[in-house]
Specification:
This protein is of the alpha+beta class. Helix content is 66%, strand content 9%.
């Protein structure tokens, strides 16, 4: 049996009643399912990562390049999708309850994390920026989560520098305590310098003492500076509630179901017709 346009049209004509029943049934079922699906909204923030040297108080005045490199972009992607940020958001917004998972069970915790990752979309725009999108049943919650992700990104970026500056400050302060009896004011340093100047090696000792004191104060200032409201990313679009429905695409679901059912039904009838023809010929 040769299958051509004429054969297809003939099958469509003979099975039109069958096609009509299947089409109506598929249309009704897919419509009910499409309208039972929960409405999902999305919210997006767009940002540019900054070069750490541009906000590190130890290098910011000597480094002229503001925006991050490819490595900074990749690092930002990794941090946004990291377990630290994920667990913070899941716990803060009690997403386990929101998504109906029992995270005391290993399987529940696994599927909870998987659904979170499925609702998070991080990508690079055609302008070189990074967009962070989150999907949720509530538009306000989606916006809050995205802005919290950005805030956590900023905190993590700063924490690395804060730890380094703290270690530097602690080391310099230890030297002052052990070597110079904990002198912690300029007046005490000047008095000590006057005393040291009377000894043969006083000038060298005084210079070392003053440099050590300067390093301590510089580290202290740097620590205060990085703890201030320093931004490690440039947010060019803050996440706001977007009440335009993102999912489900109901008409697309219905149309896809109807078209798929039509094609499957046609193939089934073609195969059945061919089989009947072969049996008859035999």
């Amino acid at each position: 049996m040769e299958i051509n346009i004429s054969t297809v049209l003939n099958i469509l004509n003979r099975g039109k009643k069958y096609f009509f029943i299947v089409f109506i049934s598929t249309f009704v079922v897919s419509t009910v399912i499409a309208f039972l699906l929960p409405v999902i909204y999305s919210s997006t923030a767009v940002l540019f990562p900054l070069n750490p040297k541009s906000y590190d108080p130890r290098t910011k005045f000597s480094y002229m390049e503001l925006y991050g490199t490819v490595e900074d972009v990749n690092r930002t992607f990794a941090l946004v999708e990291s377990g630290i940020v994920r667990d913070y958001i899941i716990n803060k917004y009690d997403l386990a309850t929101r998504y109906h998972y029992d995270t005391t069970q290993a399987s529940g915790a696994y599927y909870m994390r998987k659904e979170y990752q499925g609702n998070l979309d991080v990508k690079e725009t055609n302008k070189g920026a990074i967009s962070i999108t989150f999907y949720d049943k509530d538009a306000d919650t989606a916006a809050l989560i995205v802005n919290d992700i950005v805030a956590q990104l900023n905190i993590i970026n700063k924490s690395i520098i804060i730890d380094a500056v703290k270690k530097q400050f602690t080391t310099y302060q230890k030297v002052m305590v052990e070597k110079y009896n904990g002198l912690d004011s300029l007046a005490e340093i000047l008095n000590a310098i006057k005393t040291q100047s009377k000894s043969p090696s006083g000038e060298v000792t005084s210079m070392e003492m003053f440099q050590a004191f300067t390093r301590v104060k510089e580290a202290e200032v740097n620590l205060e500076a990085i703890n201030d409201d320093v931004q490690t990313v440039q947010v060019i679009e803050k996440a706001v509630p977007n009440w335009k429905k993102e999912k489900p695409k109901r008409m697309f679901i219905i149309a896809s179901a109807c078209i798929s059912t039509f094609i499957i039904t046609l193939l089934f009838l073609l195969i059945k017709d061919r089989k009947d023809f072969e049996e008859l010929s035999a």
